[in-house]
Design goal:
12 helices; 12-stranded antiparallel beta sheet; alpha+beta
Length: 359
Amino acid sequence: MPLDWKMGFEIELMAPPGRSRRDLADRVAKRHGGRVRRFFHPQSEPSAVQGLPTFENLTLGFEALDAEGRPLGRFVDDLTLQDGLDKAKPPQPGWYRIVADDARLLRLVMHNCDAEAQLAHTLVPLARLFGTEAAPHVSGMVRISDDRGVSVAIGAPLPGERERPCEVVTPPLPDHQATALEMLLSEARTMGCSVPAEAATHIHFDGERLCSAPAIANLVNALQRHGPALKALVKTNPRCVRLGAWPEALIALVNGAHFAELAWPQAREALTKVGLTKFCDFNLLNIASGNPAKHTFEVRILPVALEVAPALEAAALFEAILQWSVRPGLRTAPETLPAWLAELPLAPEGAMWRNRAAA
């Protein structure tokens, strides 16, 4: 299927019991005569502590590199994947996570500590930054405090079977998406990976072509009108979490009298003030924040399959939506989803979406 928009895929899988995301990274690297690089992967999870809405985490991720050191894929944890894990299982040797109440502290860890090191040693550089020493505990935990005794970060053995969740993350793919995905998913199938109960596929579309106020207005208004119907069309997993609507302030902004006339720097600044979050059906936060490491529009409503075709069909659908949005000028999507799909520049392979919507 010809796709000409640079995009990256995130596909949430589960390694079989007794195996891990590291095992899948090893398989992919070995297939290409390469190696695996271990790194810290940041995540947030809800907190039960009053006044502290989230705990910030670093968990162990693994990047498969080919023989020339080029990235093939990353294999990371996703804390939303919980069903089917045996939480009574003891931590596996060498697996740990680092927790803090401030993401900025964990960024210090990422830039100063070695993810390849064992837990007893990895936080030592962080302690030095605060003029203290790492404090190990008989439980295997390691605590870092500042020079006044206030906790900075805690390293702890990874709870039971948390090594099994495996979100497969591709590099940005300008072309040959089918080849790259089939290589990764074929190894996952061979290893016995499965689709988790809460799983989703996320597609990150390069944001460069969307950097105009009219394009954002077209996209937001069309998805605001047809988002629920699109979720039904693509069969969003009802057990998927961290989805939801955009803030009403975004809708009001893009429909304001002068938003579409703004130059992009001013439009982007306005987008930062409406309460955007990544945890929604369609993530605009990365574009609004100007994040150079992930300057993307993210579609988060897609289900997971262990075959390539469903991911590429979904990519074709949303690529057509983006192409419709970036055409010069403002436009209004038709009232019904089938009528809108008839307007989209879908590739011939995307005709199945029109047929499914009509049904």
